[in-house]
Amino acid sequence: MVQIQSVHLGELTVGEEDLITFPKGIPGFEEVTEYVLCDVDDTYSYLQAVDQAELAFIVTDPFTHFPDYEFELSDELIEELSIAEEKGVAIRCIVTWNSNPARTTINLLAPLVFNVSDCLGRQIVLQNTSYQTKHLLNQSSQSESGES
After folding, report:
1. Collapsing DSSP states into helix, strand and coil, what is residue 60?
2. What are 82-136's pLDDT values in tens digits?
3. With left for phi above 0 and alpha for psi between -120 and 50, is residue 18 left, alpha or beta?
4. How is residue 43 annotated by DSSP?
5. How far is CA 145 from CA 60, 66, 95, 135, 139, in A?
6. In order of start, what are the domains of the chain with their CATH numbers?
7. How many helices (H) and strands (E) does the chain have?
8. Which residues contact 140 (CB under 8 A, 6 or more apart)?
9. Who contacts 60 (Cβ-Cβ below 8 Å, separation ≥6)?
10. In angstroms, how far is CA 58 from the centroid of its own chain?
11. How far apart are CA 54 and CA 51, in angstroms?
């Protein structure tokens, strides 16, 4: 068992098998390579750094919010993460929370790709796409309130 301190979640005890390794880190946090995924509810989770209590990302399954979201994994990534089959892959995107829910955004341009069986992850940056780093997550809330 591993003890993890988290600013957002307090003290966590997780099994070694729950640790997710990002061999290259996450862009901007390359030196941090071990994380754990902690569900907050059915929609959101924290991707909590094992060795840095203050480093956690709110993440969500983009397909829950954007059913038409799609991209292809490169052969290089499939090899790097040792992905053998599609069902062993999980995709999450980082959410930037805002006190005004209509301004909460999701980074669809740079999804996190996980090899669930081997607990490996990598954030990739999609090329030649219209996806953005700050795509409004609650578009229906925004349109209902009349904001543009």
Report:
1. strand
2. 998 777 899 999 999 999 989 999 999 999 999 999 999 999 999 999 999 999 9
3. alpha
4. S
5. 24, 20, 21, 17, 10
6. 2-145 (2.30.290.10)
7. 3, 11
8. none
9. 43, 44, 45, 92, 93, 95, 106, 137
10. 7
11. 9
Q: What is the pTM of this model?
A: 0.89
Query: What is the rounded end-to-end Cα distance, in angstroms, of the chain?
Result: 49
Do residues 120 and 21 lie in contact, with contact meaning Cβ atoms separated by under 8 Å?
yes
Q: Which residue has the tokens 């990598």?
A: 122
Instruction: Name which of 28, 44, 42, 26 is nearest 120 in CA terms.
Output: 26
Question: What is the H or E stretch that residue 141 is in?
Answer: helix 139-145
Q: Distance (Å, rounded) from C-alpha 5 to C-alpha 25?
A: 19
Structure tokens at 125: 């940056």
Instruction: Tell the residue number behind the tokens 């795509």, with chain if given.
Output: 135
